[in-house]
Write a structure and sequence with these properties.
The protein has helices spanning 3-19, 28-48, 53-74; strands at 82-85, 102-105, 108-111, 114-124, 127-136, 139-150, 153-158, 161-167. By secondary structure, the chain is of the alpha+beta class. The protein has an eight-stranded antiparallel barrel with strand order 1-2-3-4-5-6-7-8. A hairpin with a 2-residue loop joins strand 2 and strand 3. Helix 1 (3-19) packs parallel to helix 3 (53-74) and helix 2 packs antiparallel against helix 3 (53-74).
């Protein structure tokens, strides 16, 4: 198999894997435009200078592949994503029971009968301010809180005060 065919297959695999990820459509949209414009430039250059076709194709696809892989790596989820509890024993409580641990995703969290969807998340690294709308047994209300990661503990501070949580394995 020729080098440009290998590059194209690797690029295709990375591209289609990324399209299936939950982050597709966020800042990657800009990077996809860059890939598209690179491919469009390749078509223009190769139509004017056919002798440049193979080297230009390798450069374009290699650049596109590198850009895709870089984007995929930088699209990692925030450190608060996961299952958190007041103590390790709480980690064993199933979600169907009262006292279950909190299960955070990038877009919200669930804990037994409480389901919160994040309206906005600001911050990065290890500190976040979150505005959410939560539903508990049909009752909906807004909830603003902050999360901060300190070593292995997650501190959640809301109107009820601080809670120190440990990550469940």
């Amino acid at each position: 198999m020729k080098q440009h065919q290998l590059i194209w297959r690797a690029f295709s695999a990375a591209f289609y894997t990324f399209i299936g990820s939950k982050d597709f459509g966020k800042p990657i949209a800009t990077q996809l435009e860059i890939i598209s414009s690179g491919i469009a430039r390749w078509h223009v250059v190769t139509s004017i200078f056919p002798e440049k076709a193979l080297p230009m194709r390798r450069t374009t696809f290699a650049s596109a592949l590198l850009l895709s892989l870089t984007s995929f790596a930088s699209a990692s989820e925030p450190a608060y994503v996961g299952t958190w509890a007041r103590d390790i024993a709480q980690c064993a409580v199933p979600q169907e029971q009262e006292g279950a641990p909190m299960v955070f995703s990038e877009k919200g969290y669930d804990q037994h009968e409480a389901h919160c969807t994040f309206k906005s998340v600001s911050g990065e690294g290890s500190v976040w301010k979150i505005s959410s709308v939560c539903s508990v047994q049909g009752d909906t209300q807004d909830l603003n809180f902050s999360l901060s990661l300190d070593g292995k503990n997650l501190m959640m501070i809301d109107e009820r005060g601080p809670q120190v949580l440990v990550r469940c394995n």
